[in-house]
Amino acid sequence: MREHIGPRDRLALVAESDGGPVGFLVATLRKRSPAFGGWRYGHIYDVYVDAAHRRLGIGAALVEEAFRWFRRHRIRLVQLQVRTRNPAGIEFWRGLGFEDLALTLERRL
Ligand SMILES: CC(C)(COP(=O)(O)OP(=O)(O)OC[C@H]1O[C@@H](n2cnc3c(N)ncnc32)[C@H](O)[C@@H]1OP(=O)(O)O)[C@@H](O)C(=O)NCCC(=O)NCCS
Fold first, then answer.
1. What pTM was estimated for this model as a whole?
2. CATH number assigned to the domain covering 2-95
3. Does the N-terminal or the C-terminal CB of the chain have fewer CB atoms within 10 Å?
4. CA atoms of 109 and 107, how far apart (whole Å)
């Protein structure tokens, strides 16, 4: 979290309730390599809401605030990764308009 606080190309948001933290979002500005067009895009690393405060709109509010920050930086495309074993997370992102883009594969050695 600390490395996201301060740099102009990083965003760190904290949601508070009754003076205490109940959620956070971290994001950054990225640029594709020239070989892939060199276009800029936003990347959301993580969004997390404390279990006792879920389904209250806090996660969506954090993402909407990140969208505002991206737009201020003239970003028109946002990407992120979510685990296939996280159906709630997938539903959350789909509800916010995100669509499938890539498949990340892994295997144990
Ligand atoms: C995913 C997460 C951030 C959602 O936070 P939240 O504050 O509960 O989300 P919101 O209340 O803003 O939900 C917005 C919408 O997302 C969808 N949604 C959220 N949680 C859901 C769930 N468990 N199952 C299905 N849909 C869900 C719903 O459409 C919801 O709208 P509704 O409550 O009116 O039906 C939270 O569950 C969390 O921190 N999970 C663990 C970390 C994680 O998986 N992060 C996302 C992957 S990086």
1. 0.95
2. 3.40.630.30
3. C
4. 7
